Amino acid sequence: MILFDPEKCTGCGSCVDICPTDAIELINEKAVINEDECQLCGSCEAACETGAITIEPEEPEEKGDSDVDLSQYRGVWIIAEQRKGCMAPVVYQLMGKGHELADTLGVPLAVVVIGFDMRDQVESLAGYGADTVYYVNHPDCANFNDGLYTDILVDIINKYKPEIVLSGATAIGRSLIPGVATRLETGLTADCTQLEIDPEKNLLLQTRPAYGGHIMATIVCPNHRPQMATVRPNVMKKPQVNPDAQSEIVEIPFDPSAYSIRSKLVEHISESEGEEALLSDADIVVAGGRALKNSENFELVRTLAELLGGAVGASRPPVDSEWMPYRHQIGQTGKTVCPKLYIACGISGAVQHLVGMESSEVIVAINKDRSAPIFEVATYGIEGDIFEILPALIKRLKESR
Amino acid sequence: MNILVFIKQVPYAKEVRLDPKTHTLIRDGVESIINPYDMYAIEEGLRLKEFHGGKVTVMTMGPPQAEEALRDALSYGVDDAVLLSDRAFAGADTLATSYTLALGAKNLRDFDLILCGKQAVDGDTGQVGPGMAVRLDIPYVTYVRKIRSVDDGTMRVERIMDDGYEVIDVPLPALLTVVKEINEPRVPSLKNKMRAKKQSIAVWGAADIGATTARLGLAGSATQVTDVFKPERKSNLEWLEGSVAEQVDALVDRLQKLKVG
To answer: In chain B, is it the N or the C terminus that has fewer CB atoms within a 10 Å radius of its CB?
Structure first.
């Protein structure tokens, strides 16, 4: 239930602003909460600086599964994602953060690899900070399968009991990990962009964009284990490799008869035409927005990207208008990129787009409207018409070759 | 084929922006709509029914006013609607939500397929669909962009991956989460609009679905929100001013310093 202390309320209105369901209004400079509208999401409790709002479970003594012995759980785990035997880049990015979290807690870092014939890559994980690699190696495990991978992960997590389990928020991670967390009856936070350890409680603080990136929410999982999170690719940095590091490789035996496979992969079709396959990992991204007006004009963006040796991206409007395929979309509902150079051409910078590119090292924004939000995250701003700037820039770059 | 579609009512602000002075959220004209991705799930359910026969039931969990979303769904031609509503459901994270929805599905019993949108636009987690399938012990496929065929209790679907797509055979009953590429939702017909206004909608509470109170809502949630804040944006912007040629020169100069261009 939501509890409100009018004595503590200063009438600042921060709860009114943050409430996603508009359940709160200010009447006579005090917050009034409409309990029918309130979804107990906790946004107002977190936003209130004076502690006037508190949310408590109705029957705290009858708490769900809090009989879990938390002390049995130890260690930080990364669930590795592989496609056709190749490790996804997000695995290495997660290992940098995982290592940091494990050091803070004073516990080991482990990686789980499910696949077939990946010994070299499994051994290379030591260099990125893995103390242990749990390796399930079997031809039946070569390709990702939701049901099978869920069963395997549930079994090994129950056996070894890690306190934290992280995975990439990729198509695979966002499909697989929710099933695993549900089977384990534990909490899961989607699409995290920051992870830290609360120094007092040793809890994992999981921060993610909410409401399309307008606000950030920090989430904890206090009474259930493991604490699980999927993490957006390209937000965390890949660590330096230590070639001398060693890790223990624990081969997990796999008995196909112990698992029933229900859905079956018929075929995998790669649709990336080369250029956009590289988008997530590109050092340079040139992205176009609504101001391009049509798909033909995207040629300007493509030409510039080609001259610079970069990949082509797009904000949401060109994708919605079908000028560009979805796999080029950068932002909250598309890819996250973190290149050395990001050039935004005619992109206004809706918050949903910014969350997908703002950690780029250098951002160049070209836009007619000087007050466009894209300039808030830009390193270099050009106020101007992309149909004048881009051709001139392309000409200059061609000349200087 | 009997199809159960789960939808969510979400707040929709025509315009969401930050007040430049106070950095607070300004939302003008907030209204409640069916989560946009769920519209594709409804449409796909209707198309499957038109092709294979059967019925489409739509279900949601929410406060009493979520009935509006169900009536909206009925106006597109959905046959039946159920509202899961109880004070005890409030404050649920994805773990408690998937528990509640799975019990709702079990209570309905008769379904061959469950359809959901790939995620709701308010939470953006995409976790409830897979969670529900696991609780119902049925297979699931996420990010489905096409149902190719239904044959002898097996569905062949295309699901979007980061680098292309996969073709998957999934035995029914199963749960699919769908993306917007799957179809083009229809507009409601006048006849269905009229029917939607009058049709009675079942409301099921915790007792109706046989739920354990401790696993519902806030009490049954594993996660808690501890802090909410506005994203901080660094600002070290340098404007490149002047004529187009001067702007381009300045940019090329900066790019060369970065060793590109």
So the answer is: N
Instruction: State whether B94 and A188 contact (CB < 8 Å).
Output: yes
My answer on whether omega of the bond before B173 falls inside 30° of 0, hence cis, is yes
Q: Helix (H, G, I), strand (E, B), or coil: what is residue A197?
A: strand
Residues of chain A in contact with residue B240, where contact means CB-CB under 8 angstroms, are: 380-382
In CATH, what class is A277-399? alpha beta
Tell me whether A224 touches chain B (CB under 8 Å): yes
Inter-chain touch B162–A222, beta carbons under 8 Å: no
> What span, in angstroms and rounded, lies between the C-alpha atoms of A288 and A308?
15
Does the domain at A2-56 match CATH 3.40.1260.10? Answer given as no
Which architecture does CATH list for B3-215? 3-Layer(aba) Sandwich (3.40)
Please tell us whether the domain made up of A70-256 is placed in CATH 3.40.50.620: yes
Q: Are B160 and B145 spatial neighbours (Cβ–Cβ below 8 Å)?
A: yes
Q: Which residues of B touch A280 (CB under 8 A)?
A: 162
Phi, psi of B107 (to 5 degrees): -70, -30
Yes or no, beta carbons of B261 and A308 under 8 Å apart: yes
Whole-angstrom distance, CA of residue B10 vs CA of residue B15: 15
The phi and psi torsions of A149 (rounded to 5 degrees) equal: -65, -35
- Are A2-56 and A277-399 equal in CATH topology? no
A 85-144: CB under 8 A from B = none
Phi, psi (degrees; rounded to nearest 5) at B154: -125, 140
Among B16, B123, B181, the residue with its CB nearest the CB of A214 is: B16
d(CA A77, CA A129): 12
Which of A263, A348, A394 to mutate to test binding with chain B, by most B CBs within 10 Å of its CB?
A263
Asked if the C-beta of A281 comes within 8 angstroms of chain B's C-beta atoms, the answer is no
Please name the residue ranges forming H helices in A40-167.
43-47, 89-105, 119-124, 146-160
Could you read off the pLDDT tens digit of each residue along chain A, which spans 401 residues?
788 999 999 999 888 888 877 889 898 889 999 887 787 877 888 888 898 998 876 554 444 445 678 889 999 999 999 988 899 999 999 999 999 999 999 999 999 999 999 999 999 999 999 999 999 999 999 999 999 999 999 999 999 999 999 999 999 999 999 999 999 999 999 999 999 999 999 999 999 988 777 788 999 999 999 999 999 998 898 899 999 999 999 999 999 999 989 999 999 998 765 554 578 888 899 999 999 999 999 999 999 999 999 999 999 999 999 999 888 999 988 888 989 999 999 999 998 899 899 889 899 999 999 999 999 999 999 999 999 999 999 999 998 87
Strand partners, B157: B147, B168
**Domain residue ranges in chain A:** 2-56, 70-256, 277-399
Tell whether B28 lies on the interface with A, counting CB pairs under 8 A: no
Minimal-distance CA residue of chain A relative to B102? A182
CA distance, residue B191 to nearest chain A CA (Å): 31
Contact B16 A186 (CB under 8 A): no
Probe site for chain A from B145, B159, B248 (most A CB atoms < 10 A):
B248
Contact A392 B245 (CB under 8 A): yes
**In this complex, is the C-beta atom of A307 within 8 Å of any C-beta atom belonging to chain B?**
yes
* Identity of the residue numbered A280: S
